[in-house]
Design a protein that fits this description.
It is a single chain. This protein is mainly alpha-helical. It has one domain. Helix content is about 55%, strand content about 10%. α1 crosses α5 and α5 runs antiparallel to α6.
Length: about 140
């Protein structure tokens, strides 16, 4: 099932790769704000639009809270895969697995060994919780469709 989701997502498109708030320029037009530019393309890659829309912030859930607005705006100009919500979960699940593989090698200049161990423990706990949450969310979305 996962393979079929990704097949529908990946296509010939270039994605920014770092669509955080600091890279999106906006200007006020009347009483509304509109996107006036996007900067900083150093992380460009070929990818799927669902990953592009819901990545870029340290916490994807921040964007997920505003998913209805993001999707509504995007759909004015383009299409999303039917399974875009499942794809969000899949990408977050993959991201959590990736984080788990990197935690061992992480270090912080301003933390002593005990603080470093605590932070790694918290990161592991958070990544494992994300894995569980995304599995549950993907199951509920799959049974709903």
């Amino acid at each position: 099932m996962t393979k079929s989701y990704l097949k529908k997502e990946i296509g010939p498109r270039l994605c920014h790769g770092d669509a955080s708030l600091t890279n999106i320029l906006v200007k006020k037009v009347g009483s509304k704000y509109v996107v006036s530019g996007i900067i900083d393309f150093e992380f460009c890659r070929s990818s799927g639009i669902t990953q592009e829309l819901f990545s870029g912030l340290r916490t994807q859930d921040r964007k997920y809270e505003h998913k209805d607005s993001l999707v509504k705006g995007y759909l004015r100009y383009n299409k999303l895969p039917k399974e875009w919500e499942q794809l969000i979960c899949l990408y977050k699940w993959i991201s959590s697995l990736d984080r788990l593989t990197k935690i061992k090698g992480m270090s912080w200049r301003n933390l002593d060994k005990k603080q470093t161990d605590e932070r790694k423990k918290d990161l592991r706990r958070g990544a494992l919780q994300n894995l569980k949450n995304m599995e549950k969310r993907i199951e509920s979305l799959t049974t709903r469709h």
